[in-house]
Amino acid sequence: MDQKANPAPGFKRSPEHTITVKAYNGTVTVSFGDTVIAASGRAQLLREANYPPVLYVPFADIRFEMLVRSDSSTHCPFKGDASYWSVDTGGETRKDVMWAYQAPYDEMLVIKDHGAFYPDRVEIEAIPA
To answer: Is 4 a member of any domain?
Structure first.
């Protein structure tokens, strides 16, 4: 095995904590104003404890030319270190609209190379199939 194990310390401390990730059966479109910044039929739906569900969109379906990496970061003991991006459409910007776990803990590898968006900072339209 070439990869070192990277288990989440949060699950060791709190084994009752649950996170489930399943493919979202439908399409997700993320917009800022009139500009679509992500569109996917391959999103992942993450449900964690009592938090609202979060849709994670594959990086391949995100228009990174509309995003600028910010210096913000956070840490989750279950998922890992999150990086943030702000949107810049050339006329309008908004800070930290998207986050991603680029090197998540082993248990959350399914959301690697996926970004999630804040619903109060952008418009997220999820249409079930």
So the answer is: no
Report whether pLDDT(87) > 90: yes
Domain that residue 123 falls in: 9-128
Position of tokens 């995100």?
62
Please tell me the pTM assigned to this model. 0.94
Overall number of domains in the chain: 1
User: What's the CATH code of the domain at 101?
Assistant: 2.170.150.40
